[in-house]
Design a protein that fits this description.
317 residues; mainly alpha; globular
Length: 317
């Protein structure tokens, strides 16, 4: 394990360098000027230039990038140009909300994916698989914000079973917080869960054609035992891979879902930073997404090697 992690350090360093370059460049490619946003539409050019000089935006991009990277390696994420607060404090105020949403969504992805995959990949009739395939296709194809609006109307407006917007921390009141969290987490998990379910179903259908499954059938093993002990055990690795691949979709989807449900998380911070052209915040958020996706890939490989003896960390790396 330690040897594997040490071997991944160079690739992580490469991801950090390339990801930081992308994170630094992308916000600056967008139209607009943060100095103009801060100064307002009535500001003179001299006032705008003074703000640019104060924020260091008049310096060469190479020097701005070097200052930012130097600060990162010393634990300084920078200062918000629009709010004049440290980026670390802005993220810290909202990180718990996004983590709650992401963790519950991940649990729902696992539940939805395993349920659809096992039912679809089991010895069921053809019409059952047809219904599941149609359901999965709809969950993948329909935009998440449409599901969000539908659930808000059904459970939040007409029936008033769940809060339509806002949030309460799980640490403050777990039961009330769960009610606020359930709809956004479910919406965020539907499409990734359907993708994981389809991957598992496809792998289970493939495993059912293997010789050891035919041997178990010839010995009179019950179909449900064949599914559980032979087919599912040799197919679950595909679900692990699918969950790891969908981690990026969960992070990206959180931006939209937090806006729809008025949650004060990282997604809302990203939206407000785009509106104000706040480069300092955006570049940290983009780099955080890149590093999170890379760490999720490594974690996926470790879990896959733990549950599937055919996989070796050295070979999968």
């Amino acid at each position: 394990m330690l040897r594997y992690l040490a071997g991944r350090l160079p690739s992580l360093l490469l991801v950090l360098i390339s990801g930081s370059a992308v994170a630094f460049a992308l916000p600056r490619m967008a139209p607009g000027d943060v100095a103009v946003s801060i100064a307002g539409t009535d500001a003179t050019q001299a006032q705008i230039d003074a703000i640019r000089q104060q924020l260091g935006l008049d310096r060469p991009l190479v020097l701005q990038y070097w200052d930012w990277m130097s600060g990162l390696f010393h634990g300084d994420l920078g200062t918000s140009q629009a709010l004049q607060r440290s980026v670390a404090s802005l993220i810290g105020d909202r990180l718990a909300s996004t983590l709650e949403l992401a963790l519950l969504s991940l649990l729902l992805v696992i539940l939805i994916g395993l349920t659809l995959g096992i039912i679809g990949g089991g010895p069921r009739r053809r019409w059952v698989r047809g219904v599941l395939d149609t359901t999965s296709s709809l969950l993948i194809a329909v935009p998440s914000f449409l599901f969000a609006l539908g659930l808000i109307l059904l459970f939040g407006v007409y029936n008033r079973w769940l809060p339509a917007s806002g949030e309460v921390s799980l640490l403050e009141d777990p039961w009330i917080g769960l009610q606020y969290l359930l709809m956004p987490a479910l919406v965020l998990a539907l499409a990734p869960g359907a993708v994981v379910g389809r991957m598992l179903q496809t792998e289970m259908a493939k495993v059912r054609g293997e010789d050891f499954v035919d041997l178990a059938k010839s010995k009179g093993v019950a179909p449900h035992r064949i599914t559980r002990r032979h087919v599912l055990r040799n197919s679950v690795g595909s679900a692990v891979v699918g969950i790891g691949l969908q981690a990026g979709n969960l992070i990206a989807g959180a931006v939209i879902i937090e806006a729809v449900f008025s949650r004060n998380g990282i997604g809302q911070l990203a939206v407000s930073s785009v509106e104000t052209r706040d480069f300092s915040v955006l570049q940290v958020l983009i780099l955080g997404v890149v590093l999170t996706a890379a760490l999720c890939q490594i974690l996926t490989e470790i879990i896959l090697a733990a549950i599937d003896p055919r996989v070796r960390l050295g070979e999968s790396a």
